[in-house]
Amino acid sequence: MAFSVENKHVVVVGGARSGVAAARLLVARGARVTLSDTATDLRDAAALRSIGVNVELGPHRPELLAGADLVVLSPGVPPDQPAVSAARHAGVPVIGEVELASRWLEGRVIAITGTKGKSTTTTLTARMLNEGGLVATAGGNLGDPLSGQVDASRPDATHVIEVSSFQLEGTDSFHPRIAVLLNVSADHLDRHPSLAEYGAAKARIFANQTEDDWAVVNADDPVAMALAAGGRARRFDFALDAKLRDGVTVEGAQIVRRDRGTAAPLVPVSSVKLPGRHLLADVLAAAAVACLAGVSPAAMRRAVEGFSGLEHALERVAEVSGVRFVNDSKATNIASARNAIESFHRGVVPILGGRFKGGRFEDLRGAVQSRVDAVIAIGEARPLIRAAFEGVVPVHEADSMADAVRRAFAAASPDGVVLLAPACSSFDMFQDYADRGRAFKEEVRLLVAEVKATGTM
User: Fold this and answer.
1) 297-342 pLDDT, tens per residue?
2) What gap in Å lies between CA 358 and CA 107, rounded to an integer?
3) What CA–CA distance (Å, rounded) separates 33 from 25?
4) Residue 308 contacts by C-beta under 8 Å, 6 or more apart in sequence?
5) How far apart are CA 87 and CA 430, in angstroms?
6) Per-residue pLDDT tens for 98-115?
7) Residue 80 burial class via C-beta count within 10 angstroms: exposed 0-12, middle 13-18, buried 19 and up
8) To 10 degrees, what angle do helices 118-131 and 297-305 make?
9) What is the DSSP annotation of 222-234?
10) Cα(43)–Cα(47) distance, integer angstroms
11) Who has the most CB within 10 Å: 10, 302, 330, 345?
């Protein structure tokens, strides 16, 4: 039977963009919708009320959720939140926004998850598919929420979806035809009780796949390989280092597809404009999906050559008196920050800090000792950063992004790199990672103007 919410009371918990998109979709599908958000003010409240959504602000009321026919969670809402748990104990189905939207999609789903690289891989995969003549959209945790894509879905469409652990833990019947696991390392341990439970959430991407589907996994990542081992889908992996019989890898100056041990060229490595070895791995993952989707090497190459990366992902901002400024605000965990630092050979001054999500700053010491001149610490994590690096390199604390940018510039050598790679979430100081990245770029712009005014640039 087709999934229907006609005349049912559905409570959407969380009023960020995914929750708002879910509420709109549910109204369009005939549901009576209440959106509950703990904020005292919600930007979209008036617009939602105008289409018939009942908006409740303040603490979630357990009786509201327990009396619903269905509860839909935004990704930012923990599934063990007390009112949500009360609804579940009352027998109310509780699902995530991605699960909700996927039940109405007509096209096939390609889902991409991992600790780092999701946005780059998702965007480049969609570009490759479009260059290959397919109708593909990118969204989910990136760009438009999946609920916002349902009305435009059609049988010949491909939805390339970035999915986080938060989104995956709210899935039930979610069924990607191609599921990609890029990597797994410590992240979001402020929400997931352990690395094992975080990994289990990631592994849900394979849960409903069958023998007719494909799983694409990073063969260089033992944790990812172990999580994918129990899946039923066929395997087609990618790797920079591991030897593959079947999959996508690099041989010499070419990205190649290996098929039963025989290599066929796909894209020259020289066509890749993205800095850093970790971003090359994302290109391999996208190429592996494109191979499975029937995209030609020529189309892949066009997509790669036309892609210079995403905003806030090793984004080059400016050069001031020989010092390069690079915005990697999307580096919100330890592994991402390490990859960002290791993208440069020496002279790096990273800006680290924010709201800590778990892991160990000490795991950055190897990269810091060999490449970093000084560390600038911001936000709530400053004491942890000082404890990890004091005695290794100079550590300077900053109270604001303006202070951080100027302290980093002062500490940088003339041919050095000031790198925003926080290894933390942004929520202690900013709305999100994008807000943090924009603040960094604005302070760099102001610094450029100041230096020009003094004639020292």
Assistant:
1) 999 999 999 998 888 989 999 999 999 999 999 999 898 899 899 9
2) 37
3) 10
4) 273, 274
5) 32
6) 999 999 999 999 999 998
7) exposed
8) 130
9) HHHHHHHTT--SE
10) 9
11) 330
Q: How far apart (Å, rounded) are the C-alpha atoms in residues 240 and 22?
A: 39
Question: What pLDDT is recorded for position 4?
Answer: 96
- Give the helix ranges, DSSP H, for 42-110: 45-50, 62-66, 82-89, 97-102
Provide the CATH topology of domain 9-92.
Rossmann fold (3.40.50)
The Cβ of residue 394 has, within 10 Å, a number of other Cβ atoms equal to: 14
Looking at residues 337-352, what average pLDDT do you find? 94
Share above pLDDT 90 across residues of the chain, in percent, rounded to a whole number: 81
Phi, psi torsion values for 257, nearest 5 degrees: -105, 125
Q: How far apart are CA 67 and CA 32, in angstroms?
A: 13
Residue 205 region by backbone torsions, left for phi larger than 0, else alpha for psi between -120 and 50, else beta? alpha
- Residue 256 has φ and ψ, to the nearest 5°, of -130, 155
Assign 275 a pLDDT band (cuts: 50, 70, 90): confident
Report pLDDT for 139. Answer: 87
165 token code pair: 């652990």
Residue 232: HSE in the Cβ half-sphere, 13 Å Cα cutoff: 10
The architecture of the domain spanning 315-454 is Alpha-Beta Complex (3.90)
**First and final CA of the chain: distance in angstroms?**
67
75, 108, 117, 245 from 178: Cα distances, Å: 22, 9, 17, 19
In CATH terms, is domain 99-305 a member of 2.30.130.30? no
For 186-197, what is the mean pLDDT?
65
pLDDT of residue 23: 97
pLDDT at 190: 61
Are 423 and 334 spatial neighbours (Cβ–Cβ below 8 Å)?
A: yes
Residue pair 101/146 in contact by the 8 Å Cβ criterion: yes
Domain ranges of the chain: 9-92, 99-305, 315-454
Q: How far apart are CA 222 and CA 310, in angstroms?
A: 27
Residue labelled with tokens 């290599």: 263
pTM of the predicted protein model? 0.83
Q: Kindly report the average pLDDT of the chain as a whole number.
A: 93
Which is more confident, 35 or 75?
35
